[in-house]
Amino acid sequence: MKRHHLKSQTAQWLAVLTAAAAVFGPFPESIASNPAPPAPGSPAAEARRWFQDAKFGLFIHWGLYSLLGEDAGVMDQDRLSAEQYQKLPPRFHPTKFDAEEWVKLAKSAGMKYLTITAKHHEGFCLFDSQLTRFDVVDATPYGRDPIKALAIACRKHHLKLFFYYSLLDWHHPDYFPRGITGGFTGRPESGDWKKYVAYYQGQVRELCTNYGEIGGIWFDGWWDRPEADWELDATYRMIHDLQPTALIGNNHHVAPFPGEDFQIFEQDLPGQNTAGFNKAAVAEELPLETCMTINRSWGYDARDDQFKSVEQLIRTLVGAAGRGANLLLNVGPRADGTIPAELTERLRQMGLWLQVYGESVYGTRRGPIPPQDWGVTTAREGPSPAIYLHLFFPKDRIPLPPFSSTYHAQAIGKTTPLRLEGSRQGMQLVVPEEVRTPVDTVIKLTPATPGP
To answer: Residue 451: which pLDDT band, with cuts at 50, 70 and 90?
Structure first.
């Protein structure tokens, strides 16, 4: 495409955004201040751009808690002592774990990256750490490093690998003073916080040096002791020094800290707070991610059969994209390494949907129209700009901002062009019954090719 055509389409695009804001108002969430972004074109900036393009990742909660079938927080919820918990590693022997199968499942779902719990709040490490024997290699009959197998499989199948790491630790004796959780572990009420910080930083260093290039580190548990000196500045510098393209996120539920590369929302889309702890404003220009469970549990919970439908999950993925965010969708494997069929089937169905409608999700940013009662919009910029209307609840007519040039409208998967009616004061898209599809009717708006 000729350069002046690109300039013309950019001008059209800006006009659409301006008109949309005038008609529909801004997005409903407040905007937080954001640390300075990395230099344009730098490896860190390119990594953030890749992350925003990826849109969909697999979250995996797996650990000793999987043996008990009562979710990842069972140690605290059931008031299990560290001594009682110490009886679990000899029972952890996941002979059915297959890293290739896990990665292939993520690929079949249309996911672009995978985030695995290298260490959860229980303190048990799913990787071979030289800083503790409370890990999968030293403390279990399995005796192998599943994280290494996942790293190899992810490289083979071109998925990026992120490590979840809990700053909170219910097992380590130097995690003291205690936080708001883990008060029933029976550990002595003493410890050396500086030693614990050195311990966790040493393990983060291991994760950044022993598994090749990684996608990033996903921290959790800061909220257990928000007043503590976690030395995050030093931790973040170390990660960025060792892995220049690694992205850092922290599930702390407050405004992003300097050095963080994306903002996390848990069990809510950005700007929502049904879970009660997503009170932080949405960070301006920072990549966003929503982590979500398929049922109600993060780890394997044998009693939890409250599974979201495929329709709900697709609309959550699209709803995240329409707010400028990725969806990190969780599965909790059993202790033997198998992932329940209720989870795998839903992921594969999402992948089939993305094979048809993926262009309206991957590589997009949030669209010019904020979320409406009928759905959301996504947008693609560049040489082939497009706006995608995701109609979860189609209406006969969808109001649109006034356009300064001609746009074509067509439902993806259909051949008949749709009518745009109206004037400079506003447009309406006519959506006949025959173009509507279950789950999400996706309408693509493209500007008419300008003349020479």
So the answer is: very low
